[in-house]
Write a structure and sequence with these properties.
CATH superfamily of the largest domain: RimM
Radius of gyration: 20 Å
CATH class of the largest domain: Mainly Beta
Order of helices and strands: EEEEEHEHEEEEEE
Strand order of the largest sheet: 3-4-5-2-1-6
Shape: elongated
Number of helices: 2
Number of strands: 12
Strand content: over 45%
Helix content: under 10%
Number of domains: 2
CATH topology of the largest domain: Elongation Factor Tu (Ef-tu), domain 3
Structural class: mainly beta
């Protein structure tokens, strides 16, 4: 019935772009809707290694973050292009009917009539709505994540039920 997807143990909340200055700060692209993850005293992980945030401040569209034990431009340079992660157990709860991408990847997709279409392999973010990329025996199907199409998402059953409206596939 297709490949199973295991949810990740750690979730990426930021990406280190480059060192900033000479005292160990790094420029971080924020990849979370919860930027409070970067407040002083919080822990983030780089390659599974916990690092405490000493300070953070906004800079253009990014953050400048000082991590504990990273005290020179040389130390900061070693972190270039690394992700900042948190354990999955520390994610923020979302409002009803909102989901993290990692929760949806791998879910079975069936029609309301019970026809198996495949599994969600990716999620495309568009201006109007998200689009689920479903891969199955008949190839790739793009499912708009809108109320008229997506009828139910059941994380316990790991299943999404859609209404196959005309022109969808």
């Amino acid at each position: 019935m297709g490949e199973e997807f295991a949810p990740p143990e750690f979730l990426t909340v930021g990406h280190i772009l480059a060192p900033w200055g000479t005292k160990g700060e790094v420029k971080v692209q924020v990849l979370t809707d919860f930027p409070e993850r970067f407040t002083p005293g919080e822990l983030v992980y780089v390659n599974g290694r916990p690092l405490e945030i000493e300070s953070s401040r906004a800079h253009k569209q990014q953050l400048l973050v000082k991590l504990a034990t990273i005290d020179s431009i040389q130390d900061a340079e070693k972190l270039r292009d690394h992700d900042l992660s948190i354990p999955r157990s520390e994610i923020h709860a979302l409002p009803p009917d909102e989901y993290y991408a990692f929760q949806l990847i791998g879910l079975r997709v069936t029609t309301a009539d019970g026809e198996y279409l495949g599994r969600i392999a990716d999620i495309m973010i568009t201006a109007g709505n998200d689009v689920y990329v479903v891969k199955g025996d008949s190839g790739e199907i793009l499912i708009p994540a809108i109320e008229d199409v997506v009828k139910s998402i059941d994380l316990d059953k790991r299943e999404v039920v859609i209404e196959a409206i005309e022109g969808l596939f």
